[in-house]
Amino acid sequence: MSNHSSQGLRKDEHIVIVGASLAGLRAAEALRRRDFAGQITIVGDEKYAPYDRPPLSKHVLTGHLPIEHTPLAMLEDVRATWILGVAATALDVEQRQLSLSNGERLHFDQLLIATGTRARPWPEERGGKLDGVFLIRDRDDSQQLRERLARKPGRVLIAGGGFIGCEVASVCRELDLEVTLVERGPTPLYGALGSSMGSIVARLQQQHGVDLRTRTTVESFEGDAAGRLCRARLSDGSVVEIDVAIVALGALHNTEWLQGSGLAADERGLVCDTYSRVLDAQGQVVEGIFTAGDVARWPQHLCDGDLIAVEHWGNAVDQAENAAGNMLSAETDYRAYKHIPAFWSSQFGINIKAVGLPNRGDEVMVTQGSVERYRFVAAYGRQGRIIAAVSFDQGRWLEAYNTLIEEGATYPPQLAAADQPENMQSQPAGFPAMARHA
């Protein structure tokens, strides 16, 4: 077990951070803020300094924000050695060594793994390499898609109705482009908010001219003789003539490089304990190795310690802070990570925000405002307790709901809100069974 303290760290101590994005940067800043005087090396597989990802599916695509304006603000002088455009390829826990794609080997005293996720690709044999098929995850993806959308393609097809897919559909309509959104589930945001709230999103999309195809999947993309995308074949037998396709089918955790390391890592993420310390395949703490951000699976106190991965901006920041603090502390001073997830999305002029874990909810109830006007708050319940809340253009109320979630308040909630609906009725949240246990 690590027994460091911020006073006891030697100046020749070397901390390596794998992942040069939000979590990695904020962790490095937190280390310096806590007076860590040793060496910090930050390794990133992209050639860019850390940048903000949320605008990539929104303001960058509309042209409102140039891609050059997306770098993250440096809040501290991290005084780090940056190794960018180079991927980590292997980890030797015993030797405390990291192998890199450029052949270099880095020795570390402590390691933070913040390798995040990548977009799930479309299979090549089903048209994934055609000119006109795009992913959207990194700066280059967003810039290339922005340039293509600016050429005013005839019709855009989006495969996947999660947050990224819905946001890009909104952008396309803002750009006055025809757009078809194909979603496997019964509604958009089925996996994130459930079909009850998702049906409201579906109505919003249709009112803004989106050709929404639910309970449907894309079978394949097809191109012309020059390899340019020209159509999509759907599972219902229909064919859609398209010029651009955007694949938004979720993310893959970047853990393949950890195979053979002995760590508890697989396609679901990298397992850590409540102090952000990585576990090995036998469930034992690995000394001096921590994790944070999208790649981390951690025991969530809101759901009986079940392991979850939270791929949201706020979690990356908070978990990086937690990991950095514990890296510099004696074990007796470790702080448990008690984060309550929060996320937001802008679609069709509506600001959707949520706190807690909606996809762990069994029931949902509109508690304030008007669904018809897309200005409301809904609370999610699980086993008689409030587990989450979502707001449409009513984000100012979420802090109060966050407190209810922290306190384990009963569901249905006992509110005295002036804008409470007359007949508050709980209904099934409508999640896929697998999402509630992800």
UniProtKB/TrEMBL annotation:
One of its GO terms (molecular function) is oxidoreductase activity, acting on NAD(P)H. Residues 343-418 form the Reductase C-terminal domain. It comes from the Bacteria. Gene3D superfamilies: 3.30.390.30, FAD/NAD(P)-binding domain (3.50.50.60). Transmembrane segments: none annotated. Keywords: FAD, Flavoprotein, Oxidoreductase. One of its GO terms (cellular component) is cytoplasm. The keyword RNA-binding does not apply. Residues 14-319 form the FAD/NAD(P)-binding domain. PANTHER family: APOPTOSIS-INDUCING FACTOR 1, RIESKE DOMAIN-CONTAINING PROTEIN-RELATED. This is Pyridine nucleotide-disulfide oxidoreductase. It comes from Dictyobacter vulcani.
